[in-house]
Design goal:
Number of helices: 15
Largest sheet: 8 strands, mixed
Number of strands: 14
Shape: globular
Strand order of the largest sheet: 3-4-2-1-5-6-7-8
Structural class: alpha/beta
Order of helices and strands: EHEEEHEHEHHEHEHEHEHEHEHEHEHHH
Helix content: 40-55%
Strand content: 15-25%
Oligomer: single chain
Distance between the termini: 9 Å
Length: 396
């Protein structure tokens, strides 16, 4: 097949789509992607891409086309410019694109408008669009603090509904996405199918550390934004500040990082360590040192439907999981019997879960359960096979 992929984020940005595209190439398909000028998550254009350099390049057998993008920087105004600059420039490129593809695949996280070019091309060439829905819109805006009664939220509600209903097939990362798409956006349920994310292979091959340690290292890895509610972790660390065996590690960057650092400083906590953003190649060492991994989300009822990829990565690494999240994350942790999970934004509940972990006599079994659940539900081979089949069925 000749596959056109549309997604605002791609290599060298830290985004999982690269592995998917490379594997499709390895399976004999021709893959071209329309994407942005890399600037995520730090907000500045990457070295080597300034002044219109490397707008067309090959990587891993994938042909990459980068269209005009205003970097997102670190404020709402530039983030909106970032969203719309790519949406408009990629759509203009797609409208002028003469090459024939068999199917269009669009990988949708935030913002929903990143998919626009997929539908522009598909309409012009009478092709079908398979969408991989990783993030619910406009629910993500509410998680960021925007009122559902605001004009902006309602506007993006209409925009999101139109885009979701255009897709010929929507593959969802969380079981709980289905009801939202059907009820909120009137998407035909027959066009929705569950396809959970998988972890990078490097995490599947980690050796579980069962050596006795004086300290218990708890690690959060990933984006540090409002939706992740890292403040819940900091509050729990403050509640348990007298537990001298605990060390809390935050590995990642994002819009809420400085606020979190300020919070730690105000509370005078010495047991919370910020490591900043690290290259993906360095992440296994942080997983290896962890006795358990942390996952938290805001208490937004719609965001609770998500299952972030970090959960699969934690499980692939064979790590116990301690969480403060309601909905899909809590359901998954309980089903896997791989740790403890309080409700979202419940710092005391998270502290109690950590105390349960401290007193657990068989922490290794929690990690084993985590790994086993991953193997049964979230493997890479299963993901690629299902995706390839969906693309084939909708090609013409």
């Amino acid at each position: 097949m000749k596959i056109l992929v549309v997604c605002q984020h791609y290599w060298p940005e830290p985004y999982p789509l690269e592995d998917i595209c490379k594997e499709l190439v390895n399976r004999g398909h021709e893959v071209d992607i329309i994407t942005d000028v890399p600037n995520y998550p730090m907000g500045d254009i990457y070295p080597g891409y300034k002044h219109h350099r490397n707008r067309n390049e090959m990587h891993g057998g994938v042909s990459i086309i980068r269209t005009f993008t205003i970097p997102r920087k670190h404020n709402t105004f530039f983030r909106m410019l970032n969203y719309y600059s790519f949406a408009f420039s990629s759509s203009i490129y797609a409208k002028r694109l003469k090459k024939e593809y068999d199917v269009v695949f669009t990988n949708q996280s935030s913002p929903i408008m990143m998919c626009s070019a997929a539908f522009v091309y598909a309409k012009k060439h009478s092709k079908k669009v398979v969408m991989y829905c990783m993030d619910l819109w406009p629910a993500s805006l509410a998680a960021g603090g925007l009122s559902e009664e605001s004009f902006i939220y309602k506007y993006f509600g209409k925009v999101s509904g139109k885009i979701y209903r255009k897709a010929d097939r929507i593959l969802i990362t969380s079981q709980m996405f289905r009801d939202y798409l059907i009820q909120q956006h009137q998407v035909d349920g027959n066009r929705i199918s569950y396809l959970p994310q998988y972890a990078d292979e490097m995490f599947e091959n980690l050796t579980v550390n069962d050596q006795k340690k004086e300290k218990i290292d708890l690690v959060f890895a990933g984006n540090v934004g409002a939706a992740q509610s890292i403040s819940t972790i900091i509050q729990a660390a403050n509640i348990l500040r007298n537990e001298s065996c605990l060390r809390w590690h935050i590995v990642g960057d994002g819009s809420d990082l400085e606020n979190c650092k300020h919070m730690v400083e105000e509370l005078g906590l010495s047991n919370v360590i910020f490591h900043g953003r690290k290259p993906i190649e360095e992440m296994p060492k942080f997983y290896s040192m962890a006795d358990a991994m942390l996952v938290t989300l805001t208490a937004d009822p719609l965001i609770s439907r998500t299952l972030p990829r970090k959960v699969q990565t934690y499980m692939a690494a064979g790590k116990p999981i301690i969480g403060a999240a309601t909905g899909e994350i809590q359901n998954t942790i309980n089903a896997a019997r791989c740790g403890y999970c309080a409700n979202a934004e419940d710092a005391y509940g998270l502290a109690d879960s950590v105390k349960l972990f401290i007193s657990c006599n068989n922490k290794i079994q929690l990690g084993t359960n985590s790994k086993d659940y991953y193997k049964r539900n979230f493997t890479r081979n299963h993901f690629i096979a299902v995706l390839e089949n969906e693309l084939t069925q909708h090609s013409n």
